[in-house]
Known about the structure:
Layout: H1 13-19, E1 22-27, E2 30-36, H2 42-48, E3 68-74, E4 77-82, E5 86-91, H3 97-108, E6 120-123, H4 127-130, H5 138-143, H6 147-150, E7 151-152, E8 155-156, H7 158-172, H8 188-201, E9 206-210, H9 218-233, E10 237-241, H10 245-248, E11 253-258, E12 261-267, H11 273-285
Parallel strand pairs: 5-10, 5-11, 6-9, 9-10
Antiparallel strand pairs: 1-2, 3-4, 7-8, 11-12
Amino acid sequence: AAGGGVVFISHILGEVLSATDRIVVMKDGAVVADRPAAAFDEAALVAAMGSTLRERDRPDRAAPTGAPVLRSRVGAAGFEARRGEIVGLAGLAGHGQTDLLRALYHAGSRDWRGARDPAVAFVAGDRIADGVLPLWSILWNTSLAVLPDLTRRLVVDRRAEAAFGAAWRERMGIRTDDMANPILSLSGGNQQKALFARALGARAPVVLMDDPMRGVDIGTKQEVYVRLRAEADAGRTFVWYSTEMEEICLCDRVYVFAGGAIAAELAGAEVREAAILAASFQGAAA
């Protein structure tokens, strides 16, 4: 209003639509759309980015049954996750969700030597601090967790490693012409796909995810969502902390955190934005 110009970059589409006068959409280093903000809604903006906006309705699937594969205590409340289930951790940031993920990971990965069949795998949200090894290639970043499978007489079988990398490049849609390229040659979203390939390729029955899609473009997110659901349908268990309501509403069951404790457990049709927000703020106020 005072005459200055502001360039605002965000992956949160609601912010872009509400805070700007004109929207420029870029893809692969080029401008693909430049129109007044009033000419876009969320679906049109996603379409300009080259993706198809999926409905936010929860998938219609039976709730997993059977004995829990994970159990823990969070204050006075119990936490559990079953085989084939995607369990969400919701609530205001910094209220104990990451602490639970770390505790679960350390409980299931105490063998520092690495195991051929690890109990848990972890996908970090802060890929620079906790995820990628910046001096290594895409392939080495991806194959790190499965080196016991690829080693013959203490020597890595490079052909087997290359085959592993090629298979997971295809499955995750990692956009590169050569897995030997440096990991930092990838976009942020494709670096995150490499971290998912590392975790999923390790065959761990439980995958812990600490807000892993933070700052990732919506097209990449949707590709990963499809892969996670397919892996869950095949029997894998996911514990997913996310700060994005759309992702939490994709989960089968949700624990809402507040004040370092579990404030509510929601399942099935109860997993709705209004219920999650109500539990988040009521618990924080208490």
